[in-house]
């Protein structure tokens, strides 16, 4: 999948699926499953590193993981989140940091959170040949300013952000946690695909965090999440089975043993 082919999926009737991945084995599996996009999300900060929000993950850590994902994926488009504050320190710093992502991983695009106030940065990245996926609506990197993870309902602000990011040259846009009606309007207004998470069924595609899809999340799951498996249980059952067989002397058996 290339960036132009991804954008061209808009209006074809084919909905776009995208999931996160943070390491080689899972990236290989999600690519095999046939999704159009793989996102090395800064959700890694919470999902993999165990932090309480997405702020702690660093650019070096994102690159370290994106390189593994980039090597595993042969079909899907791989997009890497620019972590906070790797694109907030001016256009040149943003190009330098996004450039590192493209040079040091095999990934094809970056994603950053923001609309109106990031339009200049998006335009600068695009003019440097770096494809940008925008992220509007709820922006988890602004959690302290927002006072929590809440549905974003200011229609005028959301429309302005979406227009600004698209006009700046974004090739696609994540819409997070906004009412379905507003997401539908934005989707109808833009010529680039919208990828929703908690934004209803009218977006051009959907993205979810892999660990949520697999039922590997911790106790809290937001309303927009759907688990398609219960790997928490599968993993605990498997490791318990191993522990019990070791304790009972049943593992290793003859077939696991060299004579
Ligand atoms: O970091 C992430 O996983 C994301 C998705 C939730 C869209 O930005």
From TrEMBL:
InterPro entries: Pantoate_hydroxy_MeTrfase (IPR003700), Pyrv/PenolPyrv_kinase-like_dom (IPR015813), Pyrv_kinase-like_dom_sf (IPR040442). Keywords: Cytoplasm, Magnesium, Metal-binding, Methyltransferase, Pantothenate biosynthesis, Transferase. Pathway: Cofactor biosynthesis; (R)-pantothenate biosynthesis; (R)-pantoate from 3-methyl-2-oxobutanoate: step 1/2. Binds 1 Mg(2+) ion per subunit. It is an enzyme of class 2 (transferase). Its EC number is 2.1.2.11. Catalyzes the reversible reaction in which hydroxymethyl group from 5,10-methylenetetrahydrofolate is transferred onto alpha-ketoisovalerate to form ketopantoate. NCBIfam families: panB, PRK00311.1. This is 3-methyl-2-oxobutanoate hydroxymethyltransferase. The gene is panB.
